[in-house]
Amino acid sequence: MLALERAGETGPYVWAGHSFGGLLVANIARRRPDLVQTVVLLDPTPLETIVFGPRLGALAEMRRTAWLGGFMQLFGLNMAARAEAKARQIPAYAKAMDAARAVLGPEAAAVRAVEFNAAAYFTQASIYSELSPEGVAAVAWDTVVYDRDLGDLPVWLVGPRDDNDSDIALLPEAQQGSAANAQRMFRFFAATRERYLATSTRSRRVVAPQGSGHNFVYEEAQWTTGVMREVLLGPDSASSVGKP
What is the pTM of this model? Predict the structure, then answer.
């Protein structure tokens, strides 16, 4: 918000966030509704998944990677290339990274320069340290956006179909357990995402194209752009919004 003010911009604004960014913009809207025109939640992260869901090894790995990345950068070692090589072992992540570069073009290098430095890594580590059942519970009242917290602000919840379990299927916790446990995980993650609809009396659910998952913003970049165009300009600007 400070950056917008220094740039001479005046609200209200359309706030959009993907994944953990969805949780962040929902919190901005809760704290400063006067600066909000519309909230667009792109498959946002529900903190309930961390408090009540299965313990995910990926979260612990994210914390370790952030700390290690920060120390490596301090000693002039490049963690970015190693992190990308590891991420590319998962086809869905490789596809998302390629799509992001194709869309951003030369700006991708500028983004990487900001993301991959010691300060950024240590900041990530500090954030990830709260992503545990104990850490989230300690800050829940200030962090979770509850039912009706956003009043009558327009809220668009954009995400995969509620029968798409492709992302959950990638989790080791789903692969190693029973089929019943994997299905329980899928139902839990899908249900907690849909609860964002209850944050406002003026919420709308927009379903991402068939087959897309959590990274639909990259996999279906043109479609996602159409959603944002409709948010900004109205329904006549993107006739395909909401069609699977």
Answer: 0.80
What phi and psi, each to the nearest 5 degrees, are found at residue 9? -85, 150
Residue partners of 64: CB distance under 8 A and separation at least 6: none
> What is the per-residue pLDDT across 178-195, written as a single tens digit (0 to 9) for each?
889 888 999 899 899 999
Q: How far apart are CA 190 and CA 195, in angstroms?
A: 9
* pLDDT greater than 80 at residue 46: yes
Q: Does the structure show a pLDDT above 90 at 101?
A: no
pLDDT at 68 over 50: yes
No. of H helices and E strands in the chain? 14, 4
Distance CA 69, CA 80 (A): 8
Query: What are the CA-CA distances from residue 83 to residues 80, 90, 177 (Å)?
Result: 5, 12, 27
Q: Which residue ranges make up each domain of the chain?
A: 1-47+144-244, 56-142
Which stretch of DSSP H or E encloses residue 154?
A: strand 154-159
d(CA 70, CA 125): 9
Q: C-alpha distances in angstroms, 207 versus 16, 157, 162, 204, 210?
A: 16, 8, 9, 10, 9
- The count of other CB atoms within 10 Å of the CB of residue 66 is 21
- The share of the chain scoring above pLDDT 90, in percent, equals 33
Q: What's the rounded Cα separation, in Å, for the pair 231 and 41?
A: 12
